[in-house]
Design a protein that fits this description.
The complex is a heterodimer. Chain A is of the alpha/beta class. Chain A has 2 domains: 2-221, 3-Layer(aba) Sandwich (Rossmann fold); 226-299, 2-Layer Sandwich (Alpha-Beta Plaits). Chain A has helices spanning 40-47, 69-75, 91-101, 106-119, 135-147, 165-178, 191-197, 215-223, 277-288, 302-312, and strands spanning 2-11, 14-24, 29-33, 55-60, 63-64, 76-79, 153-157, 183-188, 200-205, 208-214, 227-233, 251-259, 265-271, 291-298. In chain A, helix 3 crosses helix 4 and helix 4 crosses helix 5 (135-147). The longest helix of chain A is centred in the middle third of the chain and has 14 residues, at 106-119. Chain A is elongated, with a radius of gyration of 26 Å. The mean pLDDT of chain A is 86. By secondary structure, chain B is an all-alpha fold. Chain B has one domain (2-238). Chain B is 81% helix and 0% strand. Chain B has helices spanning 2-16, 19-38, 41-44, 50-54, 56-68, 71-78, 80-86, 91-111, 115-120, 128-155, 159-175, 179-182, 187-196, 198-206, 212-238. Chain B is globular. The mean pLDDT of chain B is 90. The chains are: A alpha/beta, B mainly alpha. Chain A binds chain B through residues 11, 45, 48-52, 54, 70, 73-74, 76, 78, 80-82, 84-89, 93, 97-98, 100-103, 129, 145, and chain B through 2, 5-6, 8-9, 12-14, 16-17, 78-80, 82-83, 85-90, 237-239.
Chain lengths: 316, 239
């Protein structure tokens, strides 16, 4: 449905997006995750034809953004960051303008407006001026604007910024239900957001994709990196654990081994969590005369991965 | 029509906010007080509104920027330009739509001044043909002015800058034709300045004469600045 091929965007000398390629299939909800300035918005602007890429191209619903921008615009609904709206218009006037611009005829317009207004919970404020609406209602009006022509593809730039927790839950629920029949690409710099709504995540940093995968793939990737931190009291005269530990079942490698000031051994192991390494490590310790003081599994969260990945590239 | 969708949105915004009303009232108050008080219209004892129309270019130096200052600058500041650019419009349609919206608003404001000649017409023998010529001239110079204003708005970051810059541009365009009379310029330069000047081309219109060269001048000026405006929009995408 959406395919980016080698997208690069330069603003003067600044490379906002560098050689980004990805594909999003029909009915998928994909999250673009990254710190501010990672290039999320630029990618979305390119996909919605409001910016030309400096290099590379993208195809949206089979249409090239450079060659057929009008067709691309027709098949996409876009909610820009902060949901910009005309404060002078009422909600109904605004949505009616968008519906006309989207080529919805007079006969279908009332239906289309009713549909999006009930979907986005706007019916109560239809005739209010946008300028006097709360942030939550504005965000929903922006979302309704993106949905008016029932697009196959939805592109949402930070759809829940500025909302209160209750509204956030509602909007996420709405996005998930939309994702059952539509392709949704949303951006966020909040992990929980992406974890809660998306089936697949692209992590961006400094204009590049630094990691991508489904939540399951990410979770599997994380499992492989589960750490076990051991604190041992070695018997008198012991030289330490040495290589003996790496032979233990379930232990992939010894990451570090240190003796702290109290004479205890602090060892970090990379383990395979599926083979229950804790038991084997315990048996080994007993055999070697070590006393286990603590054994703490340290699971790398998506958050840790995100922070590690995005710090490597350096923040701009 | 896609163009009319944009134009109607512009008008809805203008009439939902105080801008349209302030502009209309300011125009009518100024034009009438100029005619009756500053210029002592009745003392001239002439059945002609030439005096009234000759001041229009100067009035437009303030009026037109007030109508166009928000158009692109405000859309950009609020971010609504982002939405507009992702709706299925071509850049040309956006520009022409905005222009038509502003032009209709200006036409409404100008039309509100029609009762003025109508009431005066009872007092003397006015030439209706002359009046038609004068009003056509007003709409033409208005159209050229609006195009300049829209273009300036498209390159401005906020509406105040846009208002001041387009006011200055229009002032220069309006008065350029009078420079040769004040300074001793070489004749070719004087001729060129006159040719480029709004004031020079409006001169015949203020007497009610429709000269095809003046019509062409204002139409070309409108097209030129609308085209430049469109280039600014397309240029934004690849910037």
């Amino acid at each position: 449905m959406v395919e980016a091929v080698g997208l690069t965007k330069r603003y003067g000398t600044l490379e906002a997006v560098r050689d980004v390629s990805f594909a999003v299939g029909g009915g998928e909800i994909v999250g673009l995750l990254g710190p501010n300035g990672a290039g999320k918005t630029t990618i979305m602007k390119i996909l919605t034809c409001s910016l030309f890429p400096s290099q590379g191209t993208a195809r949206v619903d089979g249409h090239d953004v450079l060659e057929n921008p009008l067709e691309v615009k027709e098949s996409v609904g876009y909610l820009p960051e902060n949901a910009p709206l005309y404060p002078d218009l009422t909600v109904r006037e605004y949505l009616s303008f968008v519906a006309q611009a989207r080529g919805i005829g007079k006969a279908d317009r009332a239906n289309a407006l009713d549909r999006v207004c009930s979907a986005c919970g706007l019916s109560a404020v239809m005739h209010r001026g946008i300028g006097e609406l709360s942030k939550g209602y504005r965000q929903r009006t922006g979302l309704a604007q993106a949905l008016v022509h029932d697009p196959r593809i939805l592109i949402l730039d930070e759809p829940t910024t500025g909302l209160d927790p209750h509204q956030i839950v509602e909007i996420r629920e709405l996005i998930r239900s939309l994702g059952r029949e539509k392709t949704v690409i949303l951006s966020s710099h909040i992990l929980q957001e992406v974890e809660a709504t998306c089936q697949r995540v692209l992590i961006l940093n400094a204009g590049r994709i630094v990691a991508q995968g489904t939540r399951e793939e990410m979770a599997r990737g994380l499992k492989g990196e589960v750490l076990l931190e051991l604190t041992l009291r070695p018997p008198a005269g012991s030289q330490g654990a040495g290589g003996a530990l790496s032979a233990v079942r379930g232990v992939q490698r010894v990451i570090s081994e240190k003796r702290n000031t109290e004479g205890r051994l602090v060892i970090q192991l990379s383990v395979d969590p599926d083979s229950e390494p804790e038991e084997a490590v315990f048996d080994w310790a007993v055999g070697a005369g070590m006393k286990i003081l603590s054994m703490v599994p340290q699971r790398l969260s998506l958050e840790d991965i995100f922070i590690t990945l995005t710090e490597q590239g350096g923040n701009r | 029509m896609k163009v009319s969708i944009i134009a109607r949105r512009e008008l809805a915004s203008a009439f939902n906010s105080p801008v349209a009303y302030i502009v209309a009232v300011a125009y009518l108050v100024f034009a009438s007080s100029w005619l009756f008080f500053l210029n002592q219209y009745f003392a001239h004892n002439e059945a002609s509104l030439r005096l009234y129309f000759s001041v229009i270019p100067v009035v437009f130096v303030f009026l037109v920027p007030a109508l166009t200052m928000r158009s692109w600058a405000e859309e950009r500041r609020m971010g609504t330009l982002e939405v507009l650019m992702t709706l299925p419009f071509r850049e040309g349609e956006l520009v022409v739509g905005k222009f038509l919206g502003a032009f209709c608003l200006l036409a409404v404001v100008v039309a509100l001044s029609i009762p003025l000649p109508l009431t005066l017409s009872r007092l003397g023998s006015f030439d209706p043909g002359q009046l038609v010529g004068q009003y056509i001239g007003v709409l033409l110079i208005g159209s050229a002015g609006l195009s300049v204003g829209l273009f300036v708005s498209s390159v401005s970051t906020n509406q105040i800058t846009s208002f001041i810059l387009s006011g200055l541009c229009l002032l220069a365009l309006t008065l350029a034709g009078q420079l040769p009379g004040l300074l001793s310029l070489p004749s070719w330069l004087g001729g060129l300045l006159g040719f480029l000047s709004f004031g020079f081309h409006f001169e015949s219109f203020s007497r009610g004469i429709i000269d095809s060269r003046d019509v062409l001048y204002f139409l070309l000026a409108s097209v030129l600045f609308l085209y430049l405006n469109m280039r600014v929009l397309t240029g934004r995408k690849s910037s």
